């Protein structure tokens, strides 16, 4: 399963906030922000800090997508 944080970036646009402002307001590391930018998993603590800062639910921040693989790759 692949995470996509497009919903987070949309919320930032709607709130007229950039990534640096989010990082500072939420108290998250630059490493966590970089992971979000690469659609890599981050801890629930990071997601909760972001959701609290943006006044939304954690599930409002990301979408999941099934990663398609061929049968040959599964062997």
Uncertain stretches: none
For the residues shown, what is the average pLDDT?
91
The string of secondary-structure elements, in order, is EHHHHEH
Give the class-level CATH name: Mainly Alpha
Major beta sheet, strand line-up: 1-2
Secondary structure tally: strands: 2
Largest sheet: 2 strands, antiparallel
- Secondary-structure class: mainly alpha
Radius of gyration: 14 Å
Number of domains: 1
Strand fraction equals 5-15%
- How much helix is in the residues? 40-55%
Q: Please identify which CATH superfamily we are dealing with.
A: lambda repressor-like DNA-binding domains
Distance between the termini: 18 Å
Q: Helical segment tally?
A: 5
Could you characterize the architecture of this molecule?
Residues 7-64 form the HTH cro/C1-type domain. GO terms for molecular function: DNA binding. This protein is mainly alpha-helical and 75 residues long. The longest helix is centred in the middle third of the chain and has 11 residues, at 44-54. The chain is built from 5 helices and 2 strands. Helix 2 (19-26) crosses helix 4. The chain has a two-stranded antiparallel sheet with strand order 1-2. It has one domain: Orthogonal Bundle (434 Repressor (Amino-terminal Domain)), CATH 1.10.260.40. Helices cover 53% and strands 8% of the residues. It starts with a strand and ends with a helix. The chain is globular.
Question: What is the structure about, briefly put?
Answer:
The chain is mainly alpha-helical and 75 residues long.
